[in-house]
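lol ok so funny story. i was supposed to be doing the assay writeup but got distracted and ended up predicting the structure for this chain instead. priorities right. anyway since i did it might as well share w the group, maybe its usefull for someone
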Amino acid sequence: GCPWRDLPESRFGPWETVYSRFRKWRSDGTLEKVAAALVEVLDEQGEIDWDLWCVDGSSARATRAAAGAAKEGGPADEPADHGLGRSRGGLTSKFHLVVDGKGQPLGVVVSAGQRHDSTCFDEAMDSVPLPARFEALPEAKRPPKQTAADKAYSSAKIRLRLEAQGVRAVIPRKKNEKTPKGEEFDKEAYKRHNVVERCIGWLKECRRVATRYEKLAVNFLAMVRLAMIERYLRVATRSR
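and the output, tada:
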């Protein structure tokens, strides 16, 4: 959570070097490649449950330092609003997380804090890198078999997407929604949905994830991905 310029030079070297390397790894896809490679490792170790995916979003308060990014001339993948929203509490961002049935983070996207969770569902689901062993399978047979989310994600668009992909929606309906005749809600699968909330809590123990300091949304996303990589490494090496 400290400013880049406050990095202890005796331990990390010049802060300019550290920041330049961070930007390089963020922009050239290194962080995504590392994360995807570690997901492959966890898959080989049987540490990932591909049958059930759980989705949820979480807000992160942004500091004043996060505001003021240039409107033009930034990275090509930087959103126009820089993933920042204003509310009574000030500047906020939100990250939308997809985890497996065991609580391992699989995919993440960043948005402005006022964005409704359901509007980022497709982006979050599409951000999950699948291991090579699934690439040859038709889309209908790729994971997951079920997707669990809370009532905020109860929309016809999301249910139609999941149905088209052969995925069972474990999403409770809102009070003003009519339940189709014969539809059964899998309560046992929904009980496992809390793994995404626990994973969010673990990730937000990292100060750089709990609070946004970066001016650019792509840099904040990279920080969340670094926290995911740390979790992968802990799981992959805990037997040692």
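Residues 206 and 238 are 19 Å apart (CA to CA). The mean pLDDT is 93.
back to the writeup now i swear
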